[in-house]
Amino acid sequence: MVKLLGSAILIAAAASIGWLKSASFAARPKQLRLLNHALQRLETAIMYGYTPLAAAFAEISRQLPPPLRAVFSDAARAMDADAVPLTAREAWQLSWERHRGNTALANEDLRILLELGYSLGISDRDDQRKHIRHAIKQLEQEEFVAREEYQRYGTVCRSLGVLSGLLAVILMY
């Protein structure tokens, strides 16, 4: 009875590891899609709303789920700081560096977002629009790659988790 219970716990633990890894593959395309929508909102706020970047970041953060909410709200707070307000680029970069571990984004995704930060707030609206659209296009390509990776590796991770638990139980007996 104890062996059976131990075997079930071992299989469940291995299966849960596989499911967690599969969930990380599923989270990346979702977060990239949300980032694309957020950047489109940012473009709209800059072009048509004449909204300052700090206010646009704060408004966008209210519309996003965590962990992306924290990135935009931190950038807004850093730009509106009473002591020493940061530039848009500094606030954007600091916020992404602080929260990069909480997201499912790959290094290539973060590189695209950090490059976008170099153009935020330093040029006219049309130039910022051009840079935001370029970042959106790049993130759309990364989202396509992430969806393919999830389709390829998501099921494999779940199955491998269960099968490795079964293998461990077989090897123990």
Q: Give the overall form.
A: elongated
Poorly predicted runs are: none
Kindly report how far apart the N and C termini lie.
14 Å
Q: In what range is the share of β-strand residues?
A: under 5%
**How many E strands?**
0
Mean pLDDT over the full residue set: 92
Main beta sheet: none
Number of helical stretches of at least 4 residues: 6
Taking Cα atoms only, what radius of gyration do you get, to the nearest Å?
21 Å
Structural class: mainly alpha
Q: What portion of residues is helical? A: over 70%
Q: Which H/E pattern describes the elements?
A: HHHHHH
List keywords for this structure.
173 residues; mainly alpha; 6 helices
Overview of the molecule:
With 173 residues, the chain is mostly helical. It has helices at 2-47, 53-63, 68-79, 88-99, 107-117, 125-172. Helix 1 packs antiparallel against helix 6 (125-172), helix 3 runs antiparallel to helix 4 (88-99) and helix 5 (107-117) runs antiparallel to helix 6. The radius of gyration is 21 Å and the shape is elongated. The chain starts with a helix and ends with a helix. 28% of the residues are buried.
